[in-house]
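assembly run, all chains below
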Amino acid sequence: MAPTTFLSDLSVGMSGVIADLPPDSDAHTRLRELGFVPGTPVRLVRRAPMGDPIEVAVRGSRLAMRKGEAGKIKLVPG
Amino acid sequence: MSVKIKSPDEKTALPADTDSSLTDPVFAMVGNPNCGKSTIFNTLTGLKQKVANYPGVTVEKREGTCLSQHGKRLRLLDLPGAYSLNARSPDEAVVRDVLLGRRTDTPKPDLVIFVADASNLERNLYLATQVFELGIPSLLVLNMMDVAEDKQLRIDQEELSRRLGIPVILMQATSGKGMLELKSALSRKPAAAPRREPPLPAPVAAALEKTRAELTAAGVLDEQASLLEPLYLVSDHDPAHYGIEEFHLGRIAACRALLEKNHPAWENHLAAARYADIEKLLSGVLRRPARDESTLTDKLDSIFLHPVWGGACMAMIMLLLFYMIFSVAEGPMEWIDGAMASAGNWIGSQMGPGDLRDLVVSGIIPGVSGIAKFLPQILILFFFIGMMEDTGYMARVAFIMDKFMGRVGLNGRSFVPFFSSYACAVPGIMATRTIASPKDRLITILITPLASCSARLPVYLLMIAAMFPAGKVPSLQKALIMLGMYALGTGGAFAFAWLFNRSMAKEKSSLMVLEMPSYKRPALRHVAHYMLERAKIFLVRAGTVILGLSILLWAAQTYPKPSTPEPENPAAKAAYNTEHLANSMAGRAGHWIEPLIKPLGFDWKIGIGLISSFTAREVFVSTMSIIYAVESKGDENLEPLTKQIADDKWPDGRPIFTPLVCISLMVFYVFAMQCLSTVAVVKRETNGWKWPLFQIAYMTGTAYLASLAVYQIGSLLGF
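ok done. output:
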């Protein structure tokens, strides 16, 4: 088993592949619709100057989200 | 809360006899936010468009007409930006309902023009494939080809068109490239609807069949509804459930619960299945560079989002914005004032004396002038907002400020509207349209007038001058008092934001996702269009309310009229005017409220000032000039008025304007909702009187309590 981390723990510039999202969270349903589905590679582009939110590259687009939501997205090394 | 949509609406329905407009084909433009849809819409329709609200909700309905190449008239509908037909906001609910033909005020479109950001194809195709499955003839516009090229993306247009079964047009809307192809495609007879099957697994489809039968029996759906209609009704995540009738909600929720029970996480599987389909659709069609190249956007972001330089750049842009609305707008505002005053004089000289002349010269013209005075500020603010949105910088401001605004429960998008309200709340409230979350938008509208705007300055300056009647005001004290007032307003705004957020947070947790679009060169025509559109909306929607209310207040200050005619002698005239105002309805109201405001340290004369300055805060100064029979020479020269005020005494000989009363009055103006124009704009932006009335109540209530605390505690302490 590969070690799992969370999207919010990535260092800037590092990537991972989405393993899992909370199944019953409304917010994460929308994130799935925006492309965060299991198996998708993601990269942490940067953190905001005050540390939160974070900017993530996914499927060729750039989305910012708060660490609260990103902290529930499980990754495996990609 | 839910709103019925099946009610006919007179405003949006077009009259049947105008050029058979009801039979003109309706083309709807659909796409994600930030895809450049509105630029294309503006280019196609030019000035032949109108903006209104969809009935019952603050979602803008943008409709226009254009001519096909054969001279046939087409109705074009610019639907709000959406990410999915599983609606999460009233904007997305409108898109869903229009495309499903569920709205009585908007016809089901004959053709969908789907605008996709070519540099972001996979994500954009999520909504696109949902829309194509609905069976409406469609065409796909791949916009922002220049950004896609900068990202070194290659798209096989012909193959994509073949796989989707619909025309695909490449476009660069900012430079007009591809517009001709689009126009000729719109002029042809729409091709047949794309044949795409939704990625519904058999068990879910079977469950949806049952749901459809049940919802049809309950009258939620009609007989011909496709499987997709129950699908998008049960997957409605909009907390307001806009577009769904209230007595259907329970039935829909029950169907949803059953689906959840039998097929746990079915929505999550559908999202994954759709992305799998999109990957298949794009394999061999979309080619990406082997590794992410550093684009222009990355280079710019390394400056604009730099931990140090990013904040510095933003501070500079915000200061420039503030300076422009605060100072540069002043010149044109004075010209408008001057021009309207001379127009008033001229009209006055052409009319015989009487009530009608007074109404025109003292009621209508100052009212119109008061409305027109906002235009410079509105145009300047919306120039900045238009430029920031169009270049993509606005998302960066929100990104930087999100944590700060998040502390009181708002998000980064609220920053620019709130910040610009330190100049004037009217354009600030209009700018809250850029906030996507309805709850955050409402809270921002509610707290924004607490930012100490420029109209409060004359009141502060007069009171500070009255505190130091002996001579020149020490500048340190003056600066500290001013700073204190600004801090009080800001603190109040954040405290109320926090409070409102806590009391409205019963809905499910809201998600903050912010798209960080690629930077692009702004389309100046589009920005200019945006500025003029906002100005027009202000004049038409808010201006009429402002004019009506200001005429009412003018009447209150004018009637009943004294029986003797106005004297010629200037000194006698001033005394006559004082007498007239004191006896008017507003003057009497000042007397009536004296018992109420005496605990704040205010007498009936201040009461008249408070009532009159409900039109606008700075009116307090001119009202005081009339009451104290000082010939008013504008706001600049306060000396004669200050002297009169400082000498005024209660009947028992105590001075009225003690330093404590001056502070109490300033605190009152920090919090009180003394601005007709703000009330009118809030009414327009929240679609009714409920929120502006709430706002008047909570702000003026807070003002009263705060002043009361200042005066009573101050008196106890012996000030």
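Chain B touches chain A through 47 residues (CB under 8 Å).

Strands of chain B lie at 26-31, 49-53, 60-67, 73-78, 111-117, 138-143, 154-155, 168-170, 286-287, 513-515.

not gonna interpret more than that til we talk
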